[in-house]
User: Which sequence fits this backbone?
């Protein structure tokens, strides 16, 4: 093999992973092409033998084949290949291509879109469409391209790009890799194509929160998938079930008997706890009490009640962290409400989890450790930054234990509205369980899609606890516990925020009787959470002063990272990007001027760098401090 061919093959292999604009610059650089002697028009690569054809010559030969029934074409090494049509697939409107040269023979099914007959191209797309599970926009885009008379090479680029990013192709490729137990690259785990996620969750048009979404775009998306793909779409539809509004009356009305029956066998054989949960949620809402339904519901209730949460939900939790971190880094959803990106992340995480469970990979500690090491920080910081516009959900809630509370609480809530005497029809368990459902307070924390939803009003007994704490004499950390904990669950009136700020201010920003550094940190962190959730800029300002007072104590106990995150948390109380930058820029800048050890200074620099990478507008207020600490860390 000559040098030119080796270079060409390597370069084309490299270029396929780069943006189209960059590739175009390379391909149009005549000086570069002439100097290297590389023939970049040989883009068609077939078979494991690395047989390559000049693209336009290959396409013209295919058109001849489709018209005349036979053609021939030379590959890059001038070897002649005969082209014929096979008889397979038997029911396909366009048959596979057979290539033969001497003893070498193979078939290809990837070039149907070159066919000169528009109607046959469209018919073939209908033939393969049900295995792709494409969304409405992607289907519309492919139909438009196939109906056009643009050059075959351009048609190939557009069609293969859309098909290559379809959920159906992604699942097929991932399942194939998992069956072979081959190692996986990041792009094989998390696509970065917006069209892929829109095929999973639909396109957002008018919705500002998850309630509106499932009443409008989400409902239309589920209806579209069911109408177009029927039972094949059920698993992907159930992956959307991360909020009670998924199973509202409009959505569950789409699950008719035929659709439910087609889903039973697949769900029973898949052995995926999340699929079991999601399907059970639907079955409970529509009151299905047949044996199959009861068995599925009972199985997931028992699993979430008694199972090892680490083993059951570990992979699902880490797949969410992985996907969301990739989407945060790519800024793919920056122009959309936060819930839309999280729904994409959760739906894809559910799909990954489903594939791994189907292939017997229920737990993979090495994979989870790799995700935590490489993506945990960006996930955590990115979701803290979301608090500016999406106030209530915190990244800590992505842990396996809280996911269990989220899912189990949803099922218990559905069971609780069924008359106690009738519950045996739906859940096979002991009488004590049915009469006294084991609710936990953590089941009432906001779910990952509820950050933009207004919290519910506070119960009277909780209000009394908060008032007693704030009315107590002195300024102990205990006096804030009721207020801080309640902020995660219920709506807090401005009077409480003003009272807390005044209590902090009147004490000279000092706490009495601090039992330990952990108690101090918990209080500061709790106040930061409360400030962010309630959008209280007043409380955030008082907290800034509090942290100045206690910096030395926290740094002495190696809590620099915690101190940084308290500031990022509190900054979520500022909805205006200008005010947010000013607050967090000041908070972090002050930390850079402290007398820190070299390792601490490096740690702080990398944290600030990570925050600025995800939100570059912060540079407007921290650039001076950033440059100084960067110099000190070289």
Assistant:
């Amino acid at each position: 093999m000559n040098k030119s061919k080796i270079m060409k093959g390597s370069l084309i292999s490299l270029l396929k992973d780069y943006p189209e604009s960059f590739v175009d610059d390379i391909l149009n650089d005549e000086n570069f092409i002439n100097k290297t002697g590389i023939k970049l028009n040989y883009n068609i690569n077939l078979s494991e033998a690395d047989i390559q054809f000049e693209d336009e010559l290959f396409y013209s030969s295919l058109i001849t084949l489709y018209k005349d029934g036979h053609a021939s074409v030379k590959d890059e090494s001038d070897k002649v290949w005969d082209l014929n049509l096979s008889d397979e697939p038997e029911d396909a409107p366009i048959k596979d291509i057979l290539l033969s040269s001497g003893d070498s023979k193979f078939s290809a099914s990837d070039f149907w879109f070159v066919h000169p007959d528009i109607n046959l191209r469209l018919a073939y797309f209908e033939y393969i469409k049900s295995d792709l599970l494409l969304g409405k926009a992607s289907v519309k885009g492919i139909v438009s391209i196939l109906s056009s008379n643009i050059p075959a090479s351009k048609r190939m680029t557009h069609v293969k790009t859309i098909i290559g990013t379809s959920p159906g192709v992604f699942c097929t490729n991932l399942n194939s890799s998992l069956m072979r137990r081959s190692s996986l690259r990041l792009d094989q785990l998390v696509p970065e194509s917006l069209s892929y996620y829109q095929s999973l969750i639909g396109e957002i048009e008018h919705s500002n929160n998850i309630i509106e979404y499932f009443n409008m775009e989400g409902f239309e998306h589920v209806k579209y998938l069911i109408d177009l793909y029927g039972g094949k779409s059920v698993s992907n539809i159930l992956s959307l079930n991360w909020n009670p509004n998924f199973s509202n009356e409009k959505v569950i009305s789409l699950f008719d008997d035929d659709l439910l029956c087609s889903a039973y066998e697949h769900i029973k054989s898949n052995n995926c706890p999340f699929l079991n949960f999601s399907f059970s949620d639907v079955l409970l809402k529509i009151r299905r009490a047949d044996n199959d339904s009861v068995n599925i519901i009972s199985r997931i209730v028992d699993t979430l009640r008694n199972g090892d949460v680490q083993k059951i939900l570990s992979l699902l939790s880490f797949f969410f962290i992985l996907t969301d971190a990739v989407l945060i880094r790519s800024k793919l959803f920056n122009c959309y409400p936060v819930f839309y990106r999280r729904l994409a992340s959760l739906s894809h995480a559910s799909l990954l989890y489903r594939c791994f469970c189907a292939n017997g990979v229920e737990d993979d500690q090495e994979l989870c450790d790799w995700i935590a090491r490489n993506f945990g920080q960006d996930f955590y910081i990115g979701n803290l930054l979301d608090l500016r516009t999406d106030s209530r959900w915190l990244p800590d809630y992505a842990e396996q234990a809280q996911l269990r509370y989220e899912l189990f609480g949803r099922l218990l809530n559905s069971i609780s509205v069924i008359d106690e005497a009738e519950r045996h029809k739906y859940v096979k368990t002991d009488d004590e369980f049915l009469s006294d459902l084991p609710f936990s307070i953590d089941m009432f924390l906001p779910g990952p899609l509820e950050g933009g939803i207004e919290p519910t009003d506070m119960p009277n007994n909780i209000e009394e606890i908060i008032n007693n704490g704030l009315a107590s004499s002195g300024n102990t950390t205990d006096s804030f516990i009721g207020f801080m904990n309640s902020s995660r669950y219920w709506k807090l009136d401005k009077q409480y925020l003003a009272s807390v700020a005044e209590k902090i201010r009147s004490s000279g920003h000092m706490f009495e009787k601090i039992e330990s550094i952990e108690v101090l940190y918990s209080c500061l962190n709790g106040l930061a959470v409360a400030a962010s959730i309630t959008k209280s800029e007043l409380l955030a300002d008082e907290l800034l002063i509090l942290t100045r007072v206690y910096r030395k104590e926290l740094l002495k106990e190696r809590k620099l990272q915690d101190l940084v995150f308290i500031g990022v948390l509190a900054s979520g109380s500022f909805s205006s990007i200008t005010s947010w930058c000013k607050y967090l820029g000041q908070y972090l800048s002050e930390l850079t001027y402290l007398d820190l050890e070299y390792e601490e200074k490096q740690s702080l620099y990398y944290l600030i760098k990570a925050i600025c990478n995800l939100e570059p507008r912060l540079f407007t207020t921290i650039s001076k401090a950033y440059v100084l600490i960067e110099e000190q860390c070289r």
Remarks:
- Confidence is low (pLDDT under 50) at residues 1-10.
- The chain has three domains: 3-114, 171-412, 495-632.
- Residues 3-114 form one domain.
- The beta strands are 44-46, 51-53, 70-74, 80-85, 97-101, 104-108.
